[in-house]
Amino acid sequence: MRGALGGPRVLLRRLREVMAEPVSAQERLDKIVVLIAANMVAEVCSVYVLRVDGTLELYATEGLNRQAVHLTVMRSDEGLVGLVATEASPINLSDAQAHPAFSYRPETGEEIYRSFLGVPILRAGNTLGVLVVQNRARRTYSEEEVEALQTTAMVLAEMIASGELTSLAQPGAEPAVRRPVHVSGAALTDAIALGHVVLHEPRVVITNFIADDVQKELRRLGVAIETLRAELDLMLESGEVAEGGEHRDVLEAYRMFAHDRGWVHKLEEAVLTGLTAEAAVERVQSDTRARMLRQTDPYLRERLHDFDDLAHRLQRQLLGYDHAPARDKLPEHAIIVARSMGPAALLDYDRNRLRGLIIEEGGPNSHVAIVARALGIAAVGEVPNATGLVDPGDGIIVDGVTGDVHVRPTPDMEAAYVERVRLRARRQLQYLSLRDRPSVTKDGQPITLMINAGLPVDLPHIAETGAAGIGLFRTELQFMVAAQFPRTSEQLALYRNVLDAAGGKPVVFRTLDIGGDKVLPYMRNYEEENPALGWRAIRLGLDRPGLLRSQVRAMLRAASGRELRIMFPMVAMVSEFDEAKGLVERELTHLRRHGHRLPERVEVGTMLEVPSLLFQLDELLERTDFLSVGSNDLLQFMFAADRGNARVANRFDPLSVPVLRVFRLIVERANAHGKSVTLCGELASKPIGALALIAVGFRAFSVLPSAVGPVKAMLLDLDAGKVERLVASLMALPLGSASVRDKLTAFAEAEGLTL
Ligand code: PEP
Ligand code: MG
């Protein structure tokens, strides 16, 4: 490096000595700035630390007025230092005072310095402070000098992150690395948890930043990169798919990056500044993260994950790290923070200690969200950079109801949440006390409340809630959480367990509802323009009868000597129902012929989720034993509004006259045919939804296990006749504002119902 005394390697070596000295934090910082200034032949070297309040405080300086240390505090949008912090990238100027962002602080005496080089102090892509050198003369700092200063900043980042500087701070103005952070994402479950961070993929901990022998580090890096490339080749050749549903194209992308000359070159450059190979990977990755986190292009941001992964793999190569998190040694109240996660990985954690999940990827319909709901843990998804915001052991609050996440919460925030959790627990106790009360309205109308389920973890909910049975067993969940196609024997075992757990209460097994958004990672996926309207559910089942047949056979055998209810999803035409029912009958004949003991009775029904069935109701009801309305899909198709798209989610109100007309029609026709009808979509899981449905004649629901309590509490106090009359009168009015939500809310309030 031109103009430097001894170059960056000497600087790093000296820094290591200073880091090891038994001196106070302030003395150490003071020594560091002197060292850097001398090494870079700069007249000034200063360290600014980002504080919890978002301002930047001068923590140490060589060259500026020392009296200004801990007194000079700037907003993070102020001056060149602020610019370095917000942009998270170096600023290198030969005439700083000519820069529009230059701001002059008289107490520091910096007016005489013209050239300025500031680099962010970064950790995991987050800015913790700014490191600056200045010279009186105009000069442009060389690329190598910028590199060297960034490397030095890395050592400072570790010092800040270790908490060593906290003792120097005023209360409320601590270094920002420990500051409370509030972020929001997608609310995935109806639960709230307070706990401590456990990283799903623990960060590699680097203890040795500074190289003893640079050539040796270059060799280590070279070998690790070669091994990494070979490993990726092997994975691609063997077609291995890693946990979490990594697909082939992701591995292809990794391989491309691993061969990227630019990336390898940057790593080598970082080693040449005097870092160990693993610290060099960290440095380059932190820069990449900082740059990419500021990208608005979702495609590029997505690539960040690939780069992150690759860097992690390389670090593990270098340190021989066993990557698997200690799932059986989970601390109490563990909140898992993950970038992405498959459902099986979540099930691997010790359930007694697991309280919550925060995930960067994964919306409400993701498989991991489904499992989180079944486990009853608090979960928030779609939180950008979640893994970069936390450190293992940090206190954290996950609000799965609102989608809020509070990292390192303030005592006030924590107290508020403790209170919320306590209130919810009290409410749960009240619901529990209703468990054994008959589910009958105040005016004597019995309402059947069943639960939706799909995984073994759901089964205890039948007894816990006192539900009348399982109104919808989503068999696809077993397929979605598995790493490969469940064998017929595994299906049989699950269905048998389910029937055992139900202990004679009815269970409605729905045949596979895959396709659309429910993809199986191990099954060939056909690109479809409109997957929700595509080759899915019963369509796939009828076109590939082998799959449907083996599932039906497993159900029939599981229910030998007992009652069985089978239901088909996404039926659009009566003829599809006929075909599917024919398949069940053929299977029954087959089992009978082979001497198997048959179920005592088999009922065959269908979901009503496709609007075309509304115009075949009589024909359908003549054939089917029961109907179950899937309001999630029925509403999405009625309004042509994607059920998973937040932009259109609130556009149409399900509690509106056109929807209620449809529901009333369904109930009327089912009653006329003497067939039972249930509603198993999410609408019934909200007390106000259930209220509206009771008003148009529904008397059976299948709801989320957590909804049994609230819905039951509502209906026990309800005069069903009264709400029927109210809604009938609203529906008789000319169609103006079609929503009846306000009127129902007012009714509930007047009647003392809790919604
Ligand atoms: C529905 O569509 O309402 C339903 C219950 O099925 P799923 O949510 O599994 O599509
Ligand atoms: Mg559906």
Key terms for this structure?
single chain, 755 residues, alpha/beta, Beta-Lactamase, Glucose Oxidase, domain 1, Enzyme I, Chain A, domain 2, 4 domains, 44% helix, elongated, binds magnesium ion, magnesium, pyruvate, phosphotransferase system, GAF-like_dom_sf, kinase
Would you spell out the secondary-structure blueprint of this structure?
Elements: H1 7-20, H2 25-39, E1 44-50, E2 55-62, E3 73-75, H3 79-87, E4 91-93, E5 115-123, E6 126-135, H4 143-161, E7 181-184, E8 186-187, E9 192-199, H5 214-238, H6 248-258, H7 261-272, H8 277-293, H9 298-319, E10 334-338, H10 343-348, E11 354-359, H11 367-375, E12 378-381, H12 386-389, E13 395-399, E14 404-407, H13 411-434, E15 448-453, H14 460-465, E16 470-474, H15 476-481, H16 488-502, E17 507-510, H17 537-543, H18 545-558, E18 563-568, H19 574-593, E19 601-608, H20 617-623, E20 626-629, H21 631-638, H22 646-649, H23 657-672, E21 676-679, H24 687-695, E22 700-703, H25 708-716, H26 720-732, H27 741-751
Parallel strand pairs: 9-10, 10-11, 11-12, 15-16, 15-22, 16-17, 17-18, 18-19, 19-20, 20-21
Antiparallel strand pairs: 1-2, 1-6, 2-3, 4-5, 5-6, 7-14, 8-12, 9-13, 13-14
Helix pairs in contact: 1-2, 1-4, 5-6, 5-7, 5-9, 6-9, 7-8, 8-9, 13-25, 16-18, 17-18, 18-19, 24-25, 24-26
Give a description of the structure.
The protein has 755 residues and is α/β, with parallel strands linked by helices. It folds into 4 domains: 8-168, GAF domain (Beta-Lactamase); 181-202 and 325-424, 3-Layer(bba) Sandwich (Glucose Oxidase, domain 1), CATH 3.50.30.10; 214-319, PtsI, HPr-binding domain (Enzyme I, Chain A, domain 2); 443-751, Phosphoenolpyruvate-binding domains (TIM Barrel), CATH 3.20.20.60. The chain has 27 helices and 22 strands. It has an 8-stranded mixed sheet. It has an 8-stranded parallel sheet with strand order 21-20-19-18-17-16-15-22. Strands 3-2-1-6-5-4 form a 6-stranded antiparallel sheet. Strand 11, helix 11 (367-375) and strand 12 form a beta-alpha-beta unit. Helix 5 crosses helix 9 (298-319), helix 13 packs across helix 25 (708-716) and helix 24 crosses helix 26 (720-732). It is elongated and about 95 Å long. It starts with 6 loop residues before the first helix and ends with a helix. It binds phosphoenolpyruvate and magnesium ion. Magnesium ion is lined by residues 569, 609, 630, 632-633. Its EC number is 2.7.3.9. It is found in: Cytoplasm. One of its GO terms (molecular function) is phosphoenolpyruvate-protein phosphotransferase activity. Its main location: cytoplasm. This is phosphoenolpyruvate--protein phosphotransferase.
